Amino acid sequence: MTYGPLENGRGSTGTAPAGGAFLTLPFMGPHYITSIFDHCSPDYSTNGKTCRYDGSIASASVGGPDPGFDAGYAQTPGRQDYLYYDGHDGYDYSLYYEPVAAAAGGLVILSGWAVPSCHSCLSGLTIEISHGNGLLSYYGHLSHLYVAAGQQVRRGQVIGMSGSTGTATGPHLHFGLYRTNGGGPVDPYGWSGSYADPYPKDLGDMWLGGSPRYADIPMPNVTVNAAPSRRDPAAIDVWWSSPGGGNVFTVYAVGPDGRFKTWLGRTPAGSAVFHGIRGKSYWFWASVTTDLGWKDANGSQVVRLESVHRVEQ
Fold first, then answer.
1. pLDDT for 310
2. What CATH number was assigned to the domain covering residues 6-37+89-210?
3. What's the CATH number of domain 223-304, 1.10.1740.10, 2.60.40.10, 1.50.10.10, 2.60.40.3600?
4. How far lies 206's CA from each of 15, 135, 241, 242, 295, in Å?
5. Has this prediction a pTM greater than 0.90?
């Protein structure tokens, strides 16, 4: 079920970027916002209303609570246009066990359990990245961690996999922006409401360029082709490529038995000659990982090697 606007990398906040704006979206591809930053109380306390960055308000007394989650309130009486949720200090995005990307470059200061002694508490497996500007980005409820504390990461780098660890009702990404000095959370969307921001600690729109966009990085898209060799009737010419930086490929050959067998491992884009058995069919599968951790894979067409023609005596 979807709850909020679709974040597709093309939306507009309607505001100009603040000085020092630096963030890009912590994922690739369109995803719904399921919970927002509550400008009325972003400290996990409940005060009966939820205030979105554009000034929209939902309250328990006017719209009423969601029967299935009483911290979410309808914006319109009798309707299900709920805003989630009262007291929330970040954004929840509907990532279902999907790659999570660093929203900007920086130093990983936490990669582990938010509460080491309690794996079902708070945001579970969590990553924090300090960006050297007094702010840190926060990625919670992860299922896998791909970076370690003390590691420098780049914008758009895959740092983990979304999940539902900690206190979560289902798989998603909790993304937040916080002051490194303990000064509290910051809404990366800023404030564009027609009245004064109820939360006085905001810094304005922190999205690079003023609106949430995907990181400007080359994404992998594997192409692999195969054709009978003109030089050898028992050989197949195979070639593979993909956009991306620092690409590392693994190429598999799939023979008559249908089994994937590693043919070439840890190889760059290129070509090679595969030697098979005449009269048999083969196809090829190539997977790639970029230097930022993004993955893709694709298969070739099936090639049947010419049979041996016997001459009757």
1. 61
2. 2.70.70.10
3. 2.60.40.10
4. 10, 11, 36, 32, 28
5. yes
